[in-house]
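Full entry
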Amino acid sequence: MSGFSTLLYKEVLRFWKVAFQTVAAPVLTAMLYLLIFSHVLEEHVQVHGVAYSSFLVPGLVMMSVLQNAFANSSSSLIQSKVTGSIVFVLLPPISYPAFWAAYVGAAVIRGLCVGLGVLLVTLWFARLGFEAPAWILVFAILGGGILGTLGVIAGIWADKFDQLAAFQNFLIMPLTFLSGVFYSVHSLPPFWQQVSAWNPVFYMIDGFRYGFFGISDASPWKSLAVVGACFVTLSALTLALLRRGYKLRA
C-alpha cells in the first residue's frame, strides 16, 4: 500500500499548501451565504419548527463538503493531464483501486476540512443540535466520496479546463443548489417534489441534516440506501474507466 499512501499524501499536500484558497475561501463563501439568507428570511421562515438560520447551516456545511470534494479530485487530474505530469502517476505500479482510493480519499479529507471550518464559523450565528452524530459523519464521508468519485470521472473525461468547468456548472452546481440546501422540499409544488426525489444530492443533504435535528423530508434509511447505492455505482464505473485507460493512456 505504499503507492496508495504516497499518492494520498501528495494529493492532501497539494491542497493543504494553498489552504488559504482551498479551505479558507470556501468557508468565507458559506458564511456570506448564511449572513445574507438568514438576515433576509430569519423572521419569515421556519422549517419543521427550526429557525431558518439553524436549518440553513447543515445544508451549507454539506454543500461545502460536496463542492470541495469534487473540486479537489477533478482539478488535480485535469492539471496533471494538461501539464503532462499524469505520466508520473500512471507509470509506477499503483493498482487501480489504490489510484481511485487516493484521489477520492484526499477529496474527502478536503471536503471534511472545509465542512468543519464552515460548521465552526457558523456556530456563532445559529443554534444547532447534534441528535445523531453518527449519521452526520456517515453522510459527510459518503457524500464527499461520491463527489470525489464524480471529480475523478470529470477529470478523466475532460481534456481542458473549460470542459471541466462545464461539467461543474451544468451538473454539479444545479444538483447541489436544487437539493434542499436553502429550503425544505415539502415547500415545493408536487411536481418539483417529485423532481427532487430523483436528485441524489437531496438525500445527502437531507440525511446529513437529520443528524443535527432528528427530522428530515425523507426517511434517513432511504437516504442512506440511495447514497450508498450511488457511491457503489459511481466507484464501479470509475474503476472500469481506469482499467480501460480511458483518456489516460495512449
Observations:
- The chain has one domain: 2-244.
- The mean pLDDT is 92.
- Residues 197 and 203 are 8 Å apart (CA to CA).
